[in-house]
UniProtKB/TrEMBL annotation:
The keyword Phosphoprotein applies. It holds the Pfam family PGM_PMM_I. InterPro entries: A-D-PHexomutase_a/b/a-I, A-D-PHexomutase_a/b/a-I/II/III, A-D-PHexomutase_a/b/a-II, A-D-PHexomutase_a/b/a-III, A-D-PHexomutase_C, A-D-PHexomutase_C_sf, Alpha-D-phosphohexomutase_SF. This is Phosphomannomutase/phosphoglucomutase. Keywords: Isomerase, Magnesium, Metal-binding, Phosphoprotein. Belongs to the phosphohexose mutase family. It comes from Aquipuribacter hungaricus.
């Protein structure tokens, strides 16, 4: 018999599931995934207790049907399922952590409307990746779908509904009180889940007291067809309307959410993007100070290897210990647990908090920025507040389409090792090349899903960064 083939084999990624609705993912496949996840993760983790599973979904037209099918498949296998309805991804993580339940979020994050997918977690919002259980879930689901096995039939399974928005909002506010001067903030929800969570957390939609904020909304209508722009703040073209609105309204800052509202980009009063590394450094300093006040000697902060070196500089100056990690939320969440880190940040605007079950929350990072600016004297701008955290010149991520990533990387390594600057190499994630005098470094990584090489360069000054960036790109693209 030949090898089994099924679209799920192509769309289960390193730490999530993402595919085209109707072609690669549908209700039938989600029912099988629900059965497999309950069988292999939810029930074994319960260890005789209640096998709880929280299910949330975003505003994409396909999400309710897919989520319901998953919930029914899990319940048939014996899981006690709570469908939370519309949620942001970080709201789902909160439900998983606060209820000690496994969790699944139906979303394709910033992908276009034709896509949907799943983000899964174990009890307590702990991550699931291909290496830690997702491959087994995929294979069992495929076996169910192709007739290789019958779905498990358990006892005591059920599906009920509940909501977590008010509890989520209250928890975030308890971690970062906003008690400073009034601020005007423009928020672009991109027609994503931020249109629901921002009014609850920053406003009074969840029944909480008003904050000293004037929130000016952009695209708060929940619409998974994304009629205004893709909900992907990493694409700087999607920030144009927000940047213009910040300047037009004389706002103190702007916030841009992605589709499932777990990431948040910050815009200063000039309409300029605040580098996520700068936000990481600012929040790290605040979290270290809070942890030290609580009696922690040397709080740990994580940063991924293409985050600015300003982050470890700030962390160590604040009395913390900086730990460098690979790129990707499953790696960072595992490190959050193993090191007891108080905070972690990525260049992609994922921010992780120990007090948020080690999970990521862009909204919690935004609250820190708002609180920090609110505590400054009247007239202090965000650009002035963060200027000390932006210490180096950065290229941002530059992608190159290549036929053979390994060959292009080998050419770059041969070139830099034969060049005039002494260098050091690090292969933690792709390859990081650093000048031994500390004047520049770059990281070259292959994409997991596309024929791309991703280049990030940082240097002590703009001229050096441009020189290194352009030279490396010329070698990469010479083939």
């Amino acid at each position: 018999m030949g090898a089994v083939s099924h679209p799920l084999l192509d769309i289960v990624k390193a730490y999530d599931v993402r595919g085209v609705v109707g072609e690669q993912i549908d209700a039938e496949s989600c029912r099988a995934l629900g059965s497999a996840f309950a069988t292999l993760v939810v029930l074994p983790e319960a260890e005789g207790g209640e096998p709880r599973l929280a299910v949330g979904y975003d505003m994409r037209p396909s999400s309710p049907e897919l989520a319901q099918a998953f919930a029914e498949g899990a319940a048939e296998a014996g899981a006690v399922v709570t469908v939370l309805g519309l949620t942001s991804t970080d709201q789902l993580y909160f439900a998983s952590g606060s209820r000690d339940a496994a969790g699944v979020m139906f979303t394709a994050s910033h992908n276009p409307a034709r896509y949907n997918g799943l983000k899964l977690c174990r009890r307590g919002a702990r991550p699931v990746s291909l290496d830690t259980g997702l491959a087994g879930v995929r294979d069992l689901a495929v076996a169910i779908l192709t007739g290789g096995t019958e779905p498990a039939t358990g006892t005591g399974g059920s599906v009920s509904t509940d909501d977590s928005l008010a509890a989520y909002s209250s928890h975030l506010r308890s971690l970062v009180p906003l008690d400073g001067r009034p601020l005007r903030v423009v928020v672009d929800a991109g027609n994503g889940m931020g249109g629901m969570t921002v009014p609850a957390v920053l406003g009074d939609a969840a029944g909480l007291p008003a904050l000293p904020l004037e929130v000016l909304p952009l695209y708060f209508e929940l619409d998974g067809t994304f009629p205004n722009h893709d909900a992907n703040p990493l694409d700087l073209s999607t920030l144009v309307d927000l940047q213009a609105a910040v300047r037009e309204h004389g706002a103190d800052l702007g916030l841009a959410m992605d589709g499932d509202a777990d990431r948040c980009f910050v815009i200063d009063e000039r309409g300029e993007v605040v580098d996520p590394s700068t936000v990481t450094a600012l929040v790290a300093e605040l979290e270290i100070a809070r942890a030290r006040q609580g009696g922690e000697d040397v709080p740990v902060v994580l940063y991924n290897l293409i985050t600015s070196r300003a982050v470890p500089d700030v962390v160590e100056a604040a009395g913390g210990r900086a730990v460098r990690t690979r790129v990707g939320h499953s790696y960072i969440k595992a490190e959050m647990a193993s090191t007891g880190a108080v905070f972690g940040g990525e260049h992609s605007a994922h921010f992780y908090f120990r007090d948020f079950y080690g999970a990521d929350s862009g909204m919690l990072a935004a609250l820190h920025v708002l609180a920090a600016l609110g505590r400054t004297p009247e007239g202090t701008t965000l650009s002035a507040l963060v200027q000390d955290y932006a210490r180096y010149a950065r290229s941002g991520e530059v992608n190159s389409t290549v036929a053979d990533a390994a060959d292009a990387t080998a050419r770059v390594l041969a070139d830099v090792q034969a060049g005039p600057d002494p260098v050091e190499l690090d292969h933690l994630d792709g390859v990081t090349v650093s000048a031994t005098d500390g004047s520049w470094w770059f990281n070259l990584r292959s994409s997991n899903t596309e024929p791309l090489l991703r280049l990030n360069v940082e240097a002590a000054d703009e001229a050096t960064m441009v020189r290194v960036r352009d030279h490396v790109l010329s070698v990469v693209r010479a083939g």
